[in-house]
Design a protein that fits this description.
- The structure holds two protein chains of two kinds.
- By secondary structure, chain A is α/β, with parallel strands linked by helices.
- Chain A contains 16 helices and 14 strands.
- In chain A, the strands form four sheets. In chain A, strands 3-4-14-9-10-13 form a six-stranded mixed β-sheet, sandwiched between helices. In chain A, strands 7-6-5-8 form a four-stranded parallel β-sheet, sandwiched between helices. In chain A, strands 1-2 form a two-stranded antiparallel sheet.
- The radius of gyration of chain A is 19 Å and the shape is globular.
- Chain B contains twelve helices and eight strands.
- An eight-stranded parallel β-sheet of chain B has the order 4-3-2-1-8-7-6-5.
- Classes of the chains: A alpha/beta, B alpha/beta.
């Protein structure tokens, strides 16, 4: 409590989360929490957000039955929550737009963001164009190469994309650079963090703006199927999509599953599965499950999916998993690719590589006896076409 | 007053060079040096210290080896260990204290640990003689500065400089890149802080040329030189040469 935050900043029995930020950022984080709290209580802000989510983002997104895929896999009912149908093509826009509105309210007209797969960067760039804010997105050079269409989209929306050369050139390095940039410009810029991680209040802020996914999905499945599913499942990189879908189902008696990237092998450096091999540690301002070496240096990670290729799990999702409220599974690169093709052929929907990790678990769930499943389709796969082409020999 | 607080990156240019650097710093009459523990994700550091940390890690300067290489060194100013939190947490307080005991380390500057986030860990180390240096940034309000200085208190005039000083961050941003630092805001800041506290102040971030170092001394504070020094040492310059004109005050 000594930092003076008001909202709870620790999660679960192991007190994950916190605010492990350099002193320069502590006051901006206090200011952000205050602005967030006041915005949530301001009917004008909430009305503007609701209006933009409806008319710009395209919410509510549909809950689509997938009967042919369900039959092929041996499931009775499969519903897909279609975040891939939002404007810009992934759930990231829910949070990016809400934070951009918050920045404007705070009088900050400069926006900084990081991006991995490019979906958060594209969403932030679009929100900034919509609201007349300037936007700089930090992106690792490896991710820029494998998600090139998203780099072009950000630039079309008028954003500046700053390549980050350090390390593996992926999301971790992009967050490092965005935090540094924010420390230099925190007097006039707002940092729109894209996942439910980082120092308090970011994990809470992002989760709050993403639970619209699960709230809609829960009401929709009750309306369309007349009952809750047995399983709700979503992929998890930092955890914004996982929390967004799963949190509204926490009070229900059903199986909640988050799927991590199993990459191409079980050894440290070959995957991004934080539950297997991750230890408690501090990275990017929060304490959580972290893939690291014996010296407390962050480990390298690997995944075919840039959006899941991150060494830490967001603190709230990690806490829910450690406290047995959410289960965690992993899917490998190959399993994700196979699952993506299955969905394409059975239902005519091209999923993002991230979402394909959740799809990859469906055969296992069927084998375990699950009959009804609700799956979060976090994004569309257009950005991944070149990977699908090269890995599937199209 | 301690005239200069130099920053060295452990393991750059090499761990073998470290005893000689510390000995030179002592011969120059410095009361303390900051020693950086190389980290994989130095979020508060600019390009120069990032690169130095990366080189040091490549050469095997793990936290364990850095602390082991400091063991038994006495020909040294007091060392302030500049580090990120995670490597210390992974060692744990007990092992960390055991490793620090035979070294000249007298205080810890943990960049990403605001007071109160790891209270038991911090208290354990403080009681063992390793207090955390209070950091005051340009964004720190005077009210919060007062609170920080109370939470990480001055052990008193009998204690060494390394355990007493507060670190004042001269400008927004990360370490390094001293070109054209506007000294006016930091001058006003130091004057305000000297009203709040009688403990020594060190001022760092963006300082490198002799004239700005002198300007900080004239404010009654100790200038910190980091990135520029690390760059010169990596290029093969020795510490005495690199610091000679930066310690001269009467030009």
């Amino acid at each position: 409590m000594t930092l003076g935050f008001t909202l709870p900043d620790r999660f679960g029995s192991q007190a994950l989360g916190g605010c492990y930020a350099p002193e320069t950022l502590v006051q901006p984080l206090l200011d952000l929490e205050a602005a967030f709290r006041s915005a949530l209580m301001d009917p004008a802000y909430m009305a503007e957000l609701k209006g933009e989510l409806r008319h710009f983002v395209g919410r509510p997104t549909p809950l689509t039955p997938a009967p042919r895929l369900a039959a092929q896999l041996g499931l009775k009912v499969l519903f897909l929550k279609r975040e891939d149908l939002t404007h810009t093509g992934a759930h990231k826009i829910n949070n990016a737009l809400a934070q951009a509105l918050l920045a404007k309210r705070m009088g900050k007209h400069e926006i900084i963001a990081e991006t991995g797969a490019g979906q958060h960067g594209v969403a932030t760039a679009a929100a900034c164009a919509r609201l007349g804010l300037s936007c700089t997105v930090y992106m690792g050079v490896t991710d820029m190469a494998r998600q090139a269409p998203n780099v072009a989209r950000m630039r079309l929306f008028g954003a500046k994309v700053e390549p980050v050369e350090a390390g593996q050139g992926t999301l971790k390095e992009a967050v490092n650079e965005a935090l540094r940039a924010w420390a230099a410009r925190c007097d006039r810029a707002h940092y729109i963090l894209g996942s439910a991680l980082g120092p308090h209040p970011f994990p809470t802020l992002v989760r709050t703006f993403q639970t619209v996914i699960g709230e809609e999905a829960r009401a929709q499945i009750l309306e369309q199927a007349g009952a809750l599913p047995e399983v709700v499942i979503a992929c998890a990189g930092g955890g914004s999509n996982g929390l967004g879908l799963l949190v509204p189902f926490l009070g229900d008696r059903l199986q909640r599953i988050a799927v991590e990237a199993g990459g191409h092998g079980p050894d440290l450096g070959e995957h991004a599965a934080r539950l297997d091999g991750g230890r408690m540690g501090v990275l990017h301002g929060c304490k959580t499950l972290l893939l690291q070496d014996d010296h407390g240096h962050t480990a390298e990670t690997a995944s075919i999916s840039a959006g899941l290729d991150y060494p830490a799990l967001g603190p709230e999702l990690a806490a829910l998993i450690l406290d047995d409220k959410v289960e965690v599974r992993r899917a490998s690169d190959e399993e994700a690719l196979t699952a993506a093709r299955l969905l394409c052929q059975a239902e005519g929907i091209l999923p993002a590589l991230e979402s394909s990790h959740a799809l990859a678990l469906l055969p296992t769930l069927a084998a375990e006896g699950a009959a009804t499943v609700l799956l979060g389709l976090s994004g569309r796969g257009d950005k991944d076409l070149s990977t699908y082409q090269s890995r599937s020999g199209l | 007053m301690n005239p200069l607080l130099p920053f060295l990156m452990a393991g750059d240019p090499s761990l073998e060079a470290l005893p000689g650097l510390l000995s030179d710093a002592k011969a120059l009459g410095l009361e303390a040096v900051e020693l950086g523990l190389p980290h994989s994700d130095p979020i508060a550091d600019g390009p120069v210290l990032q690169a130095a940390a990366h080189r040091a890690i490549q050469r095997g300067a793990t936290p364990l080896r850095v602390l082991q290489s400091l063991a038994g060194i006495t020909d040294s100013p007091d060392v302030v260990l500049f580090t990120y939190l995670n490597p210390l947490l992974q060692l744990g307080a007990a092992e960390l204290k055991r490793l620090l005991a035979p070294t000249p380390v007298r205080a810890l500057l943990v960049v990403d640990l605001p007071f109160g986030e790891e209270p038991a860990f911090e208290m354990d180390l403080r009681v063992a003689g390793y207090p955390m240096v209070p950091l005051l940034a340009p964004t720190t309000t005077l009210g919060r500065a007062r609170q920080i200085l109370a939470e990480r208190p001055d052990p008193g005039e009998g204690a060494p400089y390394a355990q007493r000083f507060a670190y004042v961050v001269a400008r927004l941003g990360v370490t390094g890149s001293g070109q054209g630092l506007d000294l006016k805001p930091i001058s006003e800041r130091v004057a305000d802080l000297l009203q709040l506290t009688s403990r020594p102040l060190a001022v760092g971030f963006g300082l490198s040329d002799p004239s700005s170092l002198r300007a900080i001394r004239r404010l009654g504070a100790t200038p910190v030189i980091g990135s520029a020094l690390v760059q010169e040492l990596a290029a093969g310059r020795n510490l005495r040469e690199a610091l000679a004109d930066r310690l001269v005050d009467d030009l």
